[in-house]
Amino acid sequence: MQTTSIHFKANARRALADESLQRSLTRMRVGFQHKRAAAAAKLPEFETLRDEARDLKDHVLEHLDFYLEAFEAKVKEQGGHVHWARDAAEARQIILDICQAVNARTVTKGKSMISEEIGLNEHLQAHGLTPIETDLGEYIIQLRQEHPSHIIAPALHLHKEDVAETFHQHHAQYGLTRKLSQAPELLSEARQVLRSQFLAADVGITGANFCVVETGSTVIVTNEGNGDLTQTLPKVHIALTSIDKLAPTLDDVTLLLRVLVRSATGQEASVYTTFSSGPRRADDLDGPEQFHVVLLDNGRSAMLGTEFQDMLRCIRCGACMNHCPVYGAVGGHAYGWVYPGPMGAVLTPQMTGIEQAGHLPNASTFCGRCEAVCPVRIPLPKLMRHWREHEFQRHLSPRSVRYGVRAWAFAVRRPALYQRLSGLGAWLLKRLARGRGRLSRLPLAGGWTAGRDLPAPSGQTFQQQWRQRGGHR
Amino acid sequence: MSTARDAILTTLRRQLKRGSLADEPRQRLQHRLQHPPRHTIPQRGLVPHSEQVNLFIQMAERADASVQRLSTAAAIPAAVADYLHRHNLPSELIVAPDPSVAELPWSEHPSMRLRIGAAQDQDKVSVSPAFAGIAETGTLMVLSGAHTPTTLNFLPDAHIVVLPAPQIVGCYEEAWQRLREHAVAMPRTVNLITGPSRSADIEQTLQLGAHGPIHLHIVIVDPSM
Ligand code: SF4
């Protein structure tokens, strides 16, 4: 997909003025935050499990080469195929080849963020295939030719009226011309339309939340059952996943599932957690004849052993964005690429380049709520700060920031000068406030004061006050 | 393709600042795979079996499944007939070939018509057995196999699952252990099912009955009753 992360500021301004989006975001914040808190409260072991999940992911990352090879061997042993893809283009080509080898025309798809990451739908379409998204949210935005605005709730930005309008436009071709207005009717119409697609598809593509080494299984976690119909009915099942998704054993994946589901939707368990191992067995009555796993790298291996390694623990639960004041204010599309919110602010510069995505690590108030809720305890604010440092070192920050920081650094290394300047500043600001205690406008900082007042300082610096009170060094 | 594989593995090892793992750590990891260490298991499932059965029922109902307890499997056909009647469902069933459900005394209820095999689009009600019930979250573990096709779990509007009470366990770990002991190899599909299908994709409001079953009915056969 086209990256617009570089226009984050303009995107954000537009999002803030979008009244319909703002209504959706308010709904999102209330819903997700409350549900996660309630789920965590119901499981006394939750905090311990988060520690263990973090340690487990670290263990896997330290031995990633071993586990990948062992996983591959196990999949093959059961008659499945494993394909390795260095980047998006390789992954797209592998999938296209598998589809073309069985003369596929339609492809049903379960929800997969990696499919978005590699721009799979566009590629399949360009080669004459018809990809059909089957997760309700994904289906809606595919019809509208939009992209997900949230990693687990792709149509979060829409209202039921938008969905009704979209279905009315696109479902007439199936003879469904009644204009609907209620969510249950909309859901049941989507069920009806997609049912025939499930049955007709030649290939089913799902993501995989986890890959289990012990059993050579890919695991999907869904509530709708669309992923299961996608992977059970066609003759070919492709699980598109990435190299950071491994869990050594069934016990390990259970640990990750326990924290994932509660952090994501606040459920005790998702409705369907499905383990797929190889193609259908000789005497099975249903299931796919071919099973393919595509393991995508796309910049992940290069994060290992660096200050960004912790990010590879991410299990894509969405909690960091659900609790982020910036995401909550501007929504997912403003981030301009596949992954929004704090996790996106760390991943997008890695995958699309810091030149493209330099604004994202700056789109943070550093309040720390993302880290506080992350089930695998990724220090997201710290990682965003690393990107800011990279941005600064590579001279990518705006000139005003660079000069400002340099001037500040000059002064701070000269204590006498610094004290003189800060004293002058404090005095000046107090004068400007004219006794009102706050400033509603400030020269050179119009952007900052446009949305809030600056509390005026008392007129003296801390050190001046300290001296007056007889304090010593 | 193998070049991509080599390139990725080479990068991983370079980033980890080491070569391929030596024999000793390799054996340690192999051992870990063969003897999975346990993490913290939530206390709530670690209770006597009768309480596990109660917890299972409570959690499954919270996830919008309906649960019924019978003391004998022979009573299942009558209970199913009654369930279909109450929910205004058609009395045509698609039943798993597994003897535990296929060989029940269905013929005593001639009003119900029965087909045995995998599900197709027109099938509205399915009956299949579960391998385990996990009390911790009210979750069913259902395995694919020659006698238990996966489509039964997803195509029909109503899915009726038969679960013998002794197969209810406290936590996931116990269910995995039973699976390891039961099966030589992993079945193609292991479904963990918690309640009927649903979606909250429209305005974050939960609606039951997305692409999978709208009703999930669990019949626990409990001879100790
Ligand atoms: S960074 Fe943490 S909170 Fe955010 S999606 Fe990943 S696992 Fe969830």
List keywords for this structure.
A: alpha/beta, Rossmann fold, six-stranded parallel sheet, 22 helices, B: alpha/beta, 2 domains, four-stranded mixed sheet, 6 helices, elongated, binds iron/sulfur cluster
What do these coordinates show?
The complex is a heterodimer of chains A (473) and B (225). The longest helix of chain A is centred in the first third of the chain and has 23 residues, at 19-41. Chain A has three domains: 1-42 and 318-397, no CATH class; 49-296, 3-Layer(aba) Sandwich (Rossmann fold); 403-468, no CATH class. In chain A, a hairpin with a 4-residue loop joins strand 5 and strand 6. Chain A is 50% helix and 11% strand. Chain A is α/β, with parallel strands linked by helices and 473 residues long. Chain A contains 22 helices and twelve strands. Chain A is globular and about 90 Å long. In chain B, the strands form three sheets. A six-stranded parallel sheet of chain B has the order 1-12-7-4-2-3. Chain B is elongated. Chain B folds into two domains: 1-35, no CATH class; 48-221, Rossmann fold, CATH 3.40.50. Chain B has helices at residues 2-15, 23-34, 49-62, 76-86, 99-102, 172-182, and strands at residues 66-70, 92-95, 113-116, 125-129, 132-134, 139-143, 158-164, 168-169, 189-193, 198-199, 207-208, 215-221. Chain B contains six helices and twelve strands. The chains are: A alpha/beta (473), B alpha/beta (225). The complex binds iron/sulfur cluster (SF4).
